[in-house]
Design goal:
This protein is an all-alpha fold. It is built from nine helices and no strands. The longest helix has 23 residues, at about 125-145. The radius of gyration is 18 Å and the shape is globular.
């Protein structure tokens, strides 16, 4: 690795690009042949996080940042399915992140390391909301896959619901479970 911190920052950017090609592997167990990528999941998690933050009185920008960074470690440890976690021990996400950003400019490394540490600790309102966004995005994806004919998604819905902490996330989950993913295509009724 170069001693040039700009090259280190670019290395992390290139590494993060792998997430656009890396699949969320747990969906294979449900029969999804081509599941969403980790980057696709992280994008919508950040959007959901921003919305939940506004609803819960948290900092939307901070929550979005936590959401964008919450799975960046998966370039190195992959998306380990829940069942595999019974048998494998991965390095803590904060340790993986520290390795990923070690060659970045110190200000960049500090911001990213602090955000991942905050998310992993789960103690701030922003971290709680970001974790809810992650689980809610999983639930929404399960609802979409179910509408596409994937039958075995209920375990993802149930585990996501059980993990939600905020009232806003519960309300959005209820709306997802009773809504239709493609309803947004219908024009509003004339007034």
């Amino acid at each position: 690795m170069s001693d040039n911190p700009d090259a280190g920052a670019m290395s992390f950017i290139f590494e993060a690009g792998v997430l656009k090609r890396a699949a969320r592997t747990g969906w294979w167990f449900a029969g999804v042949k081509h599941p969403e990528s980790i980057a696709e999941h992280s994008f919508r998690t950040a959007l959901i996080g921003m919305m939940l933050a506004a609803m819960e009185g948290a900092d939307p920008a901070r929550v979005s940042m936590l959401c964008v960074l919450h799975d960046t470690q998966e370039t190195r440890i992959t998306d380990i399915p829940h069942i595999a976690k019974r048998y494998l021990t991965a390095a803590p996400n904060a340790a993986v992140t520290a390795d990923q950003v070690a060659a970045c400019p110190p200000a960049v490394a500090d911001v990213i390391n602090a955000a991942v540490a905050e998310y992993e600790a789960g103690e701030t309102l922003e971290a709680v909301v970001a974790r809810d966004a992650d689980k809610l995005e999983c639930l929404v994806q399960a609802v979409e896959y179910r509408h596409q004919g994937v039958a075995d998604v209920q375990r993802w819905i149930d585990s996501s619901l059980a993990a939600l902490k905020t009232a806003s996330a519960h309300r959005l989950a209820d709306a997802a479970l009773t809504g239709a993913p493609m309803a947004w295509l219908n024009p509003p009724a004339p007034a």
